[in-house]
Amino acid sequence: MSSSDALKWLNENFNFVDSVTIIDHSGTIIAKQRFNPRYTDEENAVDNQWALGKNLLEVFPGQNFQSSALLAALKEDGVIYRQQEIVWNHLGKKSVTNNLTIPIVCRGQFVGSVQLSRDVTNMGRSGRAAPRVSSASTGARYTVEDIVGRSPEIQEVRRLIQRIANSSSSVLVYGETGTGKELVVSSIHNASYRKDKTFMPINCAALPESILESLLFGTHRGAFTGAEDRAGLIEECSGGTIYLDEINSMPLKLQSKLLRVLDTKTVMPLGATKPKDVDIRIVASVNRSPEQLMQNKEMLPDLFFRLNAIHIRVPPLRSRPEDIELLVRHFLESYNRQLGKQNHGISPEAMALLKTYSWPGNVRELEHTIEAALNLTDGSQELQVADIPAYFFSPGSAVGTDAPSAPNIPLREAVANYERDLIRKALQDTGGNIDRAAALLQLPRTTLYSRMDKLGLR
Ligand SMILES: Nc1ncnc2c1ncn2[C@@H]1O[C@H](COP(=O)(O)OP(=O)(O)OP(=O)(O)O)[C@@H](O)[C@H]1O
Ligand SMILES: [Mg+2]
To answer: Are 206 and 61 a contacting pair, CB within 8 Å?
Structure first.
């Protein structure tokens, strides 16, 4: 773009703004000024006030770290410009904005971000600026290539995503917290023919029932006092993918309404009498076993069977220890770049330590550990054991710390108890697979067998 083009662009798109929002590194809104001339002074003032001190995800429950430019800017070097970003606030009110978002960096650390927004809610898609919705603004940032890992399980997950991406069946993704469910779901969308359409993640646990209901299904004028004709997300995102995160938190009544949408490929807004055709792909996720959720009546069996047409299980990190090294190197490289460090890898001892940890918070915890460790180094050498954050060594953090503390028993017996617990845990984590348990414990398979014989575990 020549400088005169750039000036023209700036003049056309940012000769005024309707609001400025500033968040800190945790996503808390620390400043918000709306001066949108289309609203009354009072409306602007109310909007300025109520969001202060709240977390951005509370104010805009449909947003997440990928779809919100303000949150993305906490990790991204440089300015993010997105057109036609669609958000719904906590009352289900939709707005469309063009946003210029800038990270605030202080001494090499991301401390917050600032967003200048221009409200284009009622300007239509073919407005003066001829907006083009790029795939970035559909909110699905990851592709299959972003899923790091060489374990057979992760390879299978990648293969499965490619195989099912273009199917129209619903998908249920199951995995503990931090295992990469969102990465998987976003990759499904991006590998499918829907990739240029909307990807809409919704955290079902973050919204009260009434809001979730009108947000998803829409409302018909007069359905309740003040209700307007408003399309729900299922209709708005037609052609695209809706990601229902923590679907077990959705009240059963809404689950059965969703089942009807899947069965009939139509949606009935609240208070409407005629259903509307929709073409939506639903991908849902749960972080506990679906069987347990059904038993606890948190999930409607009929909906489960419907969603489960395609089932992807993302295994916990402790059951695929061979992925740890690749992930560590991946995050070292990416945070090196983000934090502007010149780190030269990691010492074998530090790597070994990371490999022995059980990672209850899975890949997310590993990612944060690397980020924290890099922040502690001066960044020009190898990462050392001493750089790994202190909480890592705290009681209860390492594998097997739930082993008996061995008061008043012979050392040999205490060691045997400890060893038995570690092996039992490894077998439990790998579903009883001896090869994988041996890998987890870094023992040859034959040694593991003989230890198990000795300890009476066979
Ligand atoms: N295999 C992987 N390769 C690279 N990065 C990964 C992988 N798995 C997870 N991550 C990263 O770890 C973090 C957590 O992943 P994600 O948000 O997808 O987890 P989640 O299962 O949705 O967690 P939660 O249940 O808490 O919502 C993200 O930053 C993601 O990019
Ligand atoms: Mg998630």
So the answer is: yes
139 lines ligand 1 (CB under 6 A): no
Query: How does pLDDT run across 69-122, given as a tens digit for each residue?
Result: 898 888 877 888 887 787 777 666 677 888 899 999 888 888 999 999 988 776
Domain 144-313 has CATH 3.40.50.300: yes
Domain limits, the chain: 3-133, 144-313, 321-393, 411-454
> From the alpha carbon of 323, which atom of ligand 1 is closest?
1
What CATH class has 3-133? Answer: alpha beta
Class of domain 321-393: mainly alpha
Give the C-alpha distances (Å, rounded to integers) separating 80 from 25, 29, 77, 239, 245.
17, 18, 9, 26, 26
Flag the least confident range among 72-81, 133-142, 205-214, 400-409.
400-409
CA distance 143 to 159: 12
pTM: 0.64
Expressed in angstroms and rounded, the spacing between residue 180 Cα and the centre of ligand 1 is: 3
Residue 178 buriedness (CB in 10 A; 0-12 / 13-18 / 19+)? buried
